[in-house]
Design brief:
heterodimer, A: about 110 residues, mainly beta, four-stranded antiparallel β-sheet, B: mainly beta, about 0% helix
Chain lengths: ~110, ~120
């Protein structure tokens, strides 16, 4: 799996958009970008994933650059409950891809 | 659709005892994976089950075992507990381990404390 780089921590004001960057310059053509988050003492929560097109769901939007070397997770209106560690993961296809490995992630603090 | 459920949520055991944890996947999901999470080691893969068969196994001693039932529910067992087994044990489910089934949905975890 490609290595990812994320800032260690970020702050965001409640109600504002939270933009979380991720660098994955060694990503290969068939690898997807996944985002998960983990709220303190809870299990990881799947947020969104994409290959090369931008994606949006009820939780967030994922913007992937044209060269696919970086991406940004956008929480459009952050709430206090979005305070969590956010993990960007790049993973390829196939059965071997079920072993999920989380790096350090970004600790997002949403403040009132 | 109900999410992944795990029981119990919290457990305290003594060294040398054994423990069984249970996981019920999302309805329709047939693949169940187990993970151990500790502050020092992070998230570590234990094993995955699909159609009652273990498909992959992480690097854990034989004291850690699991099984899956015909209704896709899964259990994991840890025998002869050690202090280092204290951790958050997470279960994750998805439709199948095949191509395209990349989203794994995690349960809330079982917090095991070994004293």
């Amino acid at each position: 799996d490609a290595k990812t780089t994320q800032p260690t921590s970020m702050d965001c004001a409640e109600g504002r958009a939270a933009n979380l960057p991720c660098n994955h310059s060694t990503i290969s053509g068939n690898e997807y970008v996944y985002w998960y988050r983990q709220i303190h003492s809870q299990g990881p929560q799947y947020i969104i994933h994409g290959l090369k097109n931008n994606e949006t769901n009820e939780m967030a939007s994922l913007i992937i650059t044209e060269d696919r070397k970086s991406s940004t997770l956008i929480l459009p209106h952050a709430t206090l409950r979005d305070t969590a560690v956010y993990y960007c993961i790049v993973r390829g296809r196939g059965n071997a891809g079920n072993m999920l490995t989380f790096g350090g992630g970004t600790r997002l603090m949403v403040k009132p | 659709k109900a999410g992944v459920t795990q029981t119990p949520r919290y457990l305290i055991k003594t060294r040398g005892q054994q423990v069984t944890l249970s996981c019920s996947p999302i309805s329709g999901h047939r693949s169940v994976s187990w993970y151990q999470q500790t502050p020092g080691q992070g998230l570590q893969f234990l094993f995955e089950y699909f159609s009652e068969t273990q498909r992959n196994k992480g690097n854990f001693p034989g004291r850690f075992s699991g099984r899956q039932f015909s209704n896709s529910r899964s259990e994991m067992n840890v025998s002869t507990l050690e202090l280092g087994d204290s951790a958050l044990y997470l279960c994750a489910s998805r439709e199948s381990p095949g191509q395209g089934a990349y989203e794994q949905y995690f349960g809330p975890g079982t917090r095991l404390t070994v004293t």
